[in-house]
Amino acid sequence: MIGVLGGAAAVLFYEALQAATHLTMEVLARHSVPEPRGEAVGSDLAPGSTRRGVLVLLPVLGGLVSGVLVRRFAPEAEGTGTDGYIDAFHNKSGVMRGRVPVIKSLATIATLSTGGSVGKEGPTAQIGAGIGAAFGRVIRMGARARRTLMIAGAAAGLGAIFRAPLGGALTAIEVLYKEDLETDALTPAVLASVTAYTVFSTVNGFEHVFAFESEGFHAPAQLFVYALLGLLCSGLGIVYVKFLSGSKAHFFDRLPISRYLVPPLGGLLVGATGYFFPQVMGHGLGYVQQLVLGEPMTGIAATTGVLAGLALLKIFTSSCTLSSGGSGGAFAPSLFIGAMLGGSLGQAAQGWFPTLVPDIGPFVVVGMGAFFAGVANAPIASIVMVSELTGAYDLLPPLMLVATIALVTTRRWSIYSGQVDNRFSSPAHLWEMSPGALRQMTVRELADGAYDERAIVPADATLRDLERHSAETGETDLVLRDATGAYAGLVSMSDLAVVDGLEHLDGLVLARDLVNHRGMTLTPEDDLIRALELFAGREFDNIPIVDAREGRERLLGHIAYGDIVAFYKREHTRRGSAAE
Questions:
Q1: How does DSSP assign 288-350, residue by residue?
Q2: SS3 call for 480
Q3: Which site among 194, 198, 221, 258 is 20 to 30 Å from 304 CA-CA?
Q4: Is residue 491 within a helix (H) or strand (E), and if so which, with residue range?
Q5: Which range among 77-91, 203-217, 297-311 shows the weakest confidence by mean pLDDT?
């Protein structure tokens, strides 16, 4: 049922996006946007007819519409969509508000159809996940089953929109972790993905999204060039991740303007770049198709330097769209960046070794898979997904090599901020920890006399001070301490982000006035079961540790969920070794 509903939702989303893109790009901007062979709809516009001024302003309009929809109705629909799905799995027991799929669909259509530099895969994953979560609520399933149904929904959305049933299922279970798979949900994910793929392809055709006509892997010596491509994807992947997160934390989040105006500003930066290089607007996959087939790229000469430049510009426009609050996926931009990088190296290698590299198409395809494998920590999913997107199964050996190189060298970084290291680090798998061992471990033992104080700020600090401290430490949930050393409450900066008007009072409002969480504290004598219960019941990163023996709650420090996991792993290993 989730597969049927997910496939139908993908069809509606796809058709609405196509119609909106035709209206904005072809009717208003007179701009012909190339599409992959499997999604081409044709255009009768003459080359050079683009209204460049309209092209600049369209992303501003899209950012305004998307920003209002997201901030007013569903803040969790902001960004890639995949991050929302990951967060709901790990931290929200597979619960997702029913309005999220609708708002996410509308916001992404507004962003992508006006030239926002995003993809459609993250939104369809979140839409499908929302369907799975809703289905779990309707039939009154428990938390573990709801999470499984949500994964099945995400797999349905991905498998349908990319016509990649196995790739969609593997992506849904692999992007949750940096070094693990949610294997418990593999069978439901495959069933839902195949069903959704069948529904979608019955309407839109069963062919691959990309046409691939080049010769596959045929010479062992090519592996040296592919290995170099893996290293290039690693380096640029780190740049992408850092720029994506840094532009949000250090630029867009600090702008002294209304939060509703930030997405339009990001859209203006995208439009200004698109005035000169429209190739880096939208998902850009039509230009990737031209490169794969060795055709001339529309509007630009595809030289080695130009392709490398387009990869860098795509990093900029994608960061402007996503970091400013636009709605869309990060997978398609990753494919574009990897394709441009692969094409650039392929052209250079073709000039040096024309016999070894007769055409650049295979390097474009391998670059697509390698770049996403590195930035998303999803090597298996990226290999299978790219193979299904293109039908280039002959390229599996170099894809495996390059994806592995990219993954190993970029393991610490990810475009998905909600990813955790493995199942052991996820609140979704608390049930796998030994309750008996946790009851024997106390907060005092965990701290070992050195309580963490990184997230502590004075209760009389201003809002501006809180924002500065949050930016410097990376802590979004802050613990307040008053002048006497007592605990004074908790402030969630992410909750404050949706409150209008605060940006005009940041030098006047004090931290104690902004307390939005109060009654959750631990003492040094509490066991770790008690600590985990608090984390499971509340969406907060840090829980204060207090000493109430003196008649007041003297603040000692705070504890994070990751501290408990790390301590449990160390103690579990130590006690196991001692027993042996």
A1: HHHHHHTPPPTTS---HHHHHHHHHHHHHHHHHHHHTT-B-BSHHHHHHHHHHHHHHHHHHHH
A2: strand
A3: 221
A4: strand 487-492
A5: 77-91
